[in-house]
Specification:
The structure holds two protein chains of two kinds.
Chain A: H1 2-19, H2 21-59, E1 63-68, H3 72-79, E2 87-89, H4 94-103, E3 107-122, E4 125-134, H5 138-142, E5 146-149, H6 154-158, E6 163-167, H7 168-174, E7 184-187, E8 190-198, H8 204-208, E9 221-225, H9 226-233, E10 236-241, E11 244-249, E12 254-259, H10 262-279, E13 285-288, H11 290-333, H12 335-343, H13 348-384, H14 393-420, H15 423-428
Parallel strand pairs in A: 2-11, 4-9, 6-8
Antiparallel strand pairs in A: 1-12, 1-13, 3-4, 3-7, 3-12, 5-8, 6-9, 7-8, 10-11
Chain B: E1 6-17, E2 25-36, E3 40-44, H1 51-58, E4 66-71, E5 74-75, H2 81-91, E6 92-95, H3 107-116, H4 126-135, H5 151-163, E7 169-173, H6 181-196, E8 200-204, H7 208-211, E9 216-221, E10 224-230
Parallel strand pairs in B: 3-8, 3-9, 6-7, 7-8
Antiparallel strand pairs in B: 1-2, 1-4, 4-5, 9-10
Classes of the chains: A alpha+beta, B alpha/beta.
Bound molecules: adenosine-5'-triphosphate and magnesium ion (MG).
Chain lengths: ~425, ~240
Amino acid sequence: MLTFQFVSTVRLGIKSLMLHKLRSALTMLGIIFGVCSVIAMLAIGEGASYEAQEAIKNLGSNNILLRSLKPPDQARQQAGGSPRGMQLAYGLTYEDGARIQSTIPGVNRVLPMRIIRENVRFDRNEIPCQVIGTLPSYMAVTGAGIVRGRFLAHLDEQHAENVCVITTGLARRLFPHLDPMQHAVKIDTFYYRIIGILQERSQPEQRTQAGAMEGQPLDNNVYIPLSVSRTRFGETLIRRSAGSFEAEEVQLHQITVQMQNLASVETADPQIRTLLGRFHDQNDYEIIVPLQLLRQAEQTKRIFNIVLGSIAAISLLVGGIGIMNIMLATVTERTREIGIRRALGAKRRDITTQFLVETVVLSVGGGLVGVLVGVLTPLVVSQLTTMKTIVTVWSVLLAFGISGAVGIVFGLYPASAAAKLDPIEALRHE
Amino acid sequence: MPADSAIIRIRDVEKRYVLGGEADVLALRGVNLDVEAGSYLAIMGPSGSGKSTMLNILGCLDRPTAGRYFLGGEDVSRMPDDQLSEARGLKIGFIFQSYNLIAQLTVLENIQVPLLYQGKDVRTHLESCLELAKLVGLGDRLHHRPSQLSGGQQQRVAVARSLVNNPLMILADEPTGNLDSKTGQEVLDLIDRLNEAGKTIVLVTHDDRVASRADRVIHMKDGLIDREVVNRPMRARPAVSSS
Ligand SMILES: Nc1ncnc2c1ncn2[C@@H]1O[C@H](COP(=O)(O)OP(=O)(O)OP(=O)(O)O)[C@@H](O)[C@H]1O
Ligand SMILES: [Mg+2]
């Protein structure tokens, strides 16, 4: 009985709205845009922060990254025309690694890395790569996955074997028609036997020289034993450029400190800073704490969501005001009808319901269309751009819920204004 | 005249329109009136004498500012708004001078409107609605809109609509005011038949010939009943079993 009445009230509401199709459609448009923008904006925000968080997670939230930096004041000196043959010594040292391993509590592993840019050759292919000298614990610290063969082993390190592991992308480029396993690639003047292929992903060390490797694919990595890197390349690197050359002496380009748990990351961060500060008199290294970056990213996302949410809320507010405006006009226009209905036995409540239902039909109808467009928009955006978008269920529910609430909030006043009309006055209205 | 046969009983009813100070209008100045169940009453009088005001109070559209109004033995003069609405819907059928149909609804839907507000299911009452439409001669116009009907046809829809909740009485304020005399006659004939079937009728008119159809005519002047004419004793009418 009650549901039947409700259904017929809704049907009556739709019927009244259909009398002014254009007007109703235009009124709904406000809500459609509002709901659509809520969903689309949240989807884009969600997608962006997901990507950022994934990248940070790849660094390992239990890790602390130390990187060698060319100290800024000397870099400036060079730009001002440095004497030929000047040698620069800077960056992290083997001693730094040993000190951290022995003095910082909660350290699990300390992974040193040397990262050198060299061309890697096989047959007629020559590809610029990052040659990374590191230890077998690389796998445990970064959680990288081996696709074929094996990673560097302790014996390789001890005996300074000329072996290497390459990433899948490099394998594809260097060996388009051949199985790379057991072939030897030439780096500088030495040959290295390929013993394994590593799954590529956004590796921490790839980001180190992203700037320097501009235009190059970031997954051209060759891993060799640290001892080999030290003996074959030496500590001093000479780079020739336009008539002059510069020599840099860097022991380690990166040290990844793996901590036992998240709590020890927090305590170790300042301790490492103090320790390194004591032994480096220049600012030749940076410390990156992925956990902090992750927190910052979450914070940023929260702010982002609040900003987007406010923009969307304002557009819904504007839509709601549009609805209210139209409903007030409708009430005036239909004063006579209200009088007739009251004379025929309608209570104030019945009139309120009738107009409220109309408003809610408008806003919920707009909400439904808005949800549809709002779910499609991010799809189109990620099709046309490289932007990742994620439509979450809660954003759809939120947007839809708000549209319903907008209908009730902004419909209440016009509906109660209609119900308050005096029946006789209303009947007399032309 | 036994007291409980009076369907309307009005005692010292006043209606004051408050406009502020001297400007207040006293539209009714202490009216007393009894209307028996099944009778046919016409109200006449010059313009501004308070006929419509009186009919609005009788129809529970308005409350008197002083005095008492008993409708079917129940004091409705102090009722809250919701109960008044219910009384209107259940006990009273209205016929207005300007028809007052709802423009976006069809003939059938217009007839069904009063059912909605009594929580009745229009599907179970469809038969009786169709019968009412047939009674007023619009059985073949059920799905027309008011704008597609003549004035007389619209007024007949209003008559059918006034009957749908089987009310105690029908109130009509100048029902033929907008009609030519022939269609007016048809509507009045319809009202006559309702009265013969036992419905109480109260009708406001300026037309003596319309008033002559009533059992009793009261003439109002300056918010008071000036004089009263009894055309014929109500009981003299041939008794008709109400269906
Ligand atoms: N809402 C109102 N506010 C102020 N005065 C009113 C109001 N309604 C009616 N009146 C006054 O009450 C008096 C009676 O009005 P009413 O409408 O009852 O007259 P009537 O007898 O129906 O006249 P008519 O034959 O012209 O319809 C008039 O003087 C009118 O001006
Ligand atoms: Mg009048």
